[in-house]
Amino acid sequence: FNFFCSKPKPTPCNWNSCVYNKKNGGFLSGAAEFFTDERAKALYKQRLQYLVSRYAHSPAVFAWEFFNEVDITDGYTPQGMAVWTKEMAQFLRSIDIYRHPISTSFCCQEPVEVWTLPEMDFVMVHSYSRHNGSDMADNSQFSTVSTSQQFGKPTYVAETGENGRSNDKSGPAFPADPTGIGLHNALW
User: Fold this and answer.
1) Are 122 and 104 in contact (CB under 8 A)?
2) Measured at the alpha carbon of residue 49, what is the angle toward residues 155 and 58, in degrees to the nearest 5?
3) Rounded to an integer, what distance in angstroms lies between the CA atom of residue 141 and that of residue 111?
4) Which residues on adjacent β-strands are paired with residue 127?
5) Is the dihedral angle over the CA atoms 53, 59, 63, 66 positive or is it negative?
6) What is the rounded distance in angstroms from the CA atom of residue 89 to the CA atom of residue 112?
7) Residue range 163-169: average pLDDT?
8) Residue 10 and residue 13: Cα distance in Å, rounded?
9) Whether the Cβ atoms of residue 179 and residue 166 lie closer than 8 Å to each other
10) pTM for this entry
11) Which long-range contacts (CB under 8 A, 24 or more apart) does 52-60 make?
12) Whole-angstrom distance, CA of residue 82 vs CA of residue 76
């Protein structure tokens, strides 16, 4: 997502160094155009073709994820992402003879428009302190159960964590889990 956002949100953005950017010799005037421009979509499909050709045979490949935290990109809307995701998933399904599951991920929301697509095989969540600020295992369980019930699909917790560094910068990086037991329990 970093290459398709221009204003730092929760993380740095790298549109200024993206190869699709006209300023760098690309053909897009803005990062949001990546999801609607026909040439950009064709190039993404070409990338999918390469990835499937190169890696699909491997038993190490669990699934395909289109984006990590795509809702951080410029111009993101759940409706627009659903249209793009449906198109890419249908293409990917047509070229992957191994029929790997397909998903994507979001930073800050669980868009009904994307997760209810039949092309999405499972819901991928990032459960950073959404439910419980100090218990990653509880966060993971809550996220898994609630999204699985909401969308009627298997749910995979792809990222988890607790609230980050306290306001006191001299304190521990993860004040609610200084020993790492919360991370241990979430992984377990």
Assistant:
1) no
2) 60
3) 19
4) 160
5) negative
6) 16
7) 55
8) 9
9) no
10) 0.88
11) 52/92, 52/95, 52/96, 56/96, 56/97, 56/98, 56/100, 57/98
12) 10
CB atoms within 10 A of CB 169: 7
Scanning 21-72, the segments in alpha helix (DSSP H) are: 38-55
Question: What is the average per-residue pLDDT within 60-89?
Answer: 96
State the helix-helix crossing angle for 78-95 and 38-55, rounded to 10 degrees: 40
Q: CA–CA separation, 122 vs 188, rounded Å?
A: 21
- 137 phi, psi to nearest 5 deg: -65, -45
94-153 pLDDT, tens digit each: 999 999 999 999 988 889 999 999 999 999 988 776 666 667 777 778 778 888 899 999
pLDDT of residue 181: 78
Q: For residue range 42-69, what is the model confidence (pLDDT) as tens digits?
A: 999 999 999 999 999 999 999 999 999 9
pLDDT of residue 127: 79
Residue 102 has φ and ψ, to the nearest 5°, of: -125, 140
Angle at alpha carbon of residue 10, lines to 153 and 125, rounded to 5°: 10
Of 2 and 102, more confident: 102
